[in-house]
Amino acid sequence: RSSGESSTSKYLESVLKDFIVLSFDIPVEPNKALTYIKDLCNIYNPDIVVGNSLGGFYTSQLSSKYNKLLINPAIRPLEANLDLSTPRDYSFFSNREDGIQNFEFKSEYVEQLKIMQTLIFSNSDFEDNVTTHAFFATNDEVISKNDVNIFRNSHYSKSLTIYDGTHQISK
User: How far apart are CA 163 and CA 71, in angstroms?
Assistant: First the structure.
């Protein structure tokens, strides 16, 4: 429910002053969101793709051709405290370029996430262990500790850092 103007992207811009940080409004529909992120990667060929929360879930599904940093990724977004399992209206946490402030998370989006969730590590290969790193906060109020264990028990076990903090890294 964040946007390219989220506190996380602003925080990354403030600490990564020697880098160009690109942050975009991502479509709400999961299939469109993943396609959009893949298209952006093809256009900009970034050195690293950073995804936070649901964005971390999408980022984890990118090819091992990209270096990926997942911050508190919602490995199982429908079980996370994101409140997405029931279709309803939501508000964005931050302003979007398109000016949209509210959106409906439809039942078809829930179904798309269910399918994506079953495939999350199915396209992974050994290279992903080298190109993917995840940070999980000790006091994350959104992501389940089970997500940390799922990530740890996958072949990403050496690409995991636990840090003292909450879901929002800007705090």
Answer: 10
The reported pTM is: 0.86
For the segment 94-102, the average pLDDT, to the nearest whole number, is 85
Classified as helix, coil or strand, 46 is coil
Tokens 């262990």, located at residue: 129
- 163: β partners: 137
| Cα–Cα distance measured from residue 151 to residue 140, given in angstroms and rounded to the nearest whole number | 15
CA–CA dist 106, 87 (Å, integer): 5
Q: Which two tokens stand for residue 68?
A: 């990926």
Rounded to whole angstroms, what are the CA distances from 72 to 18, 106, 111, 147? Answer: 24, 24, 22, 9
What is the Cα–Cα distance from 83 to 72, expressed in whole angstroms?
16
User: How does pLDDT run across 139-156, given as a tens digit for each residue?
Assistant: 999 888 888 888 887 756
Both tokens of 73, joined, read 């990724």
CB burial of residue 28 (10 Å; 0-12, 13-18, 19+): middle
